[in-house]
User: Which sequence fits this backbone?
């Protein structure tokens, strides 16, 4: 069971704020905030390098905690500056030649798409796999599109723009029967659902710390399966942490996933992400998922009862992300109206998700991301506020 009273006491902003923007950036709990500040004070008291040496165990906890979460070895974990940073480091290290094929999902985020568009300019054939009628990746189409020229399959597990939870386990099973590398963006999964890289059969997995994991901004994780390392080429992201300069004309990469790290990092955020991951593990991801599913389901159902509001979520499996539009008011205006009532939501546009929002003929959507520290009373209050904001314009 989720002890909401305790969790809200450890999230002081909830006293005067309804935070439904956890899919953008959540509210770090007090232990996470304290860990970051404590580390910064150590740097100020003794020096940056000296704090790094003295607090090695605290810094390394992010590898151990993340390994417990993902069911992998700590040596397969790299700490990065965010999900986009992780994704780019992984993708840019995969050798791709003109004529090679890359398959991507229609749920891809803009940062991933930029790398894929650049690869297309180098002669790599980049194709998106169509969705089925439910808004999930079409598994039959994926199987038909796979051949020995496909080097990478890229999937974003949960769309940031419609909340659809993609069948990543099934995609992993299909891709594992080929020679392609499976690159999985789990940015909106981490912190709200369990993740097991053995079940997913992914070669790479990335996420950010600031969303449902409730870490600090400027933090991220890259999982790199041990077996994929030998298949990689050179990376443009290399320094003394990721490699060793062995002679004037030679170098070799660091072992395991550390080849993806830079020596200069957000060390306070690194300590905090280890604390945030253990915080979630202590709560239990089954309980977290159940709580988020119940709250977001109630919110989604309530939106459907408001005149002129259309829920824009897709997929058979839905999560804590709830999206909607109104025939009376633009999403940006709705978000502003809610903000005036101390309610945080987002309003992503097609520039963030051309393959989803753009293809559906929408300019933007209102996006709520509901977490386990939110309450039923808050759900009711936000529904009332949406009705008031939309109704005021409709009248």
Assistant:
């Amino acid at each position: 069971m989720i002890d909401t009273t305790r969790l809200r006491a450890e999230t002081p902003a909830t006293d005067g704020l309804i935070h439904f923007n956890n899919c953008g950036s959540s509210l770090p709990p007090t232990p996470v905030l304290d860990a970051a500040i404590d580390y910064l004070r150590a740097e100020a008291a003794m020096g940056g390098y000296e704090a790094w040496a003295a607090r090695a165990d605290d810094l390394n906890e992010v590898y151990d905690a993340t390994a417990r979460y993902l069911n992998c070895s700590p040596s397969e974990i790299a700490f990065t500056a965010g999900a986009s940073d992780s994704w780019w480091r992984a993708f840019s290290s995969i050798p791709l030649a003109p004529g090679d094929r890359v398959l991507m999902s229609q749920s891809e985020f803009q940062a991933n798409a930029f790398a894929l568009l650049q690869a297309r300019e180098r002669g790599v054939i980049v194709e998106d796999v169509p969705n089925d009628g439910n808004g999930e990746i079409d598994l039959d189409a994926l199987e038909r599109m796979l051949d020995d020229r496909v080097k990478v399959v890229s999937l974003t597990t949960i769309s940031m723009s419609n909340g659809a939870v993609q069948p990543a386990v099934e995609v992993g099973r299909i891709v594992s029967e080929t020679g392609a590398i499976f690159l999985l963006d789990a940015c909106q999964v981490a912190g709200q659902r369990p993740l097991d890289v053995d079940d997913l059969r992914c070669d790479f997995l990335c996420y950010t710390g600031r969303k449902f994991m409730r870490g600090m901004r400027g933090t991220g994780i890259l999982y790199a399966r041990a077996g994929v390392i030998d298949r990689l080429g050179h990376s443009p992201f290399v320094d003394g942490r990721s490699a060793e300069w062995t002679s004037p004309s030679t170098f070799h990469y660091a072992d395991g996933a550390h080849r993806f790290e830079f020596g200069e990092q957000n060390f306070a955020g690194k300590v905090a992400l280890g604390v945030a991951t253990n915080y979630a593990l202590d709560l239990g991801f089954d309980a977290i998922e159940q709580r988020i599913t119940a709250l977001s389901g109630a919110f989604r159902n309530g939106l459907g009862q408001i005149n002129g509001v259309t829920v824009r979520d897709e997929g058979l499996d839905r999560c804590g992300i709830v999206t909607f539009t109104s025939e009376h008011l633009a999403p940006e205006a709705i978000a502003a109206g809610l903000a005036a009532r101390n309610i945080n939501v987002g309003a992503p546009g097609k520039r963030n998700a051309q393959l989803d929002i753009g293809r559906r003929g929408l300019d933007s959507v209102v996006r709520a991301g509901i977490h386990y520290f939110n309450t039923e009373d808050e759900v009711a209050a936000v529904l009332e506020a949406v009705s008031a904001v939309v109704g005021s314009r409709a009248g």
Summary: The chain has a mean pLDDT of 96. The first strand starts at residue 18 and ends at 19. The first helix runs from residue 4 to 9. Residues 148 and 178 are 7 Å apart (CA to CA).
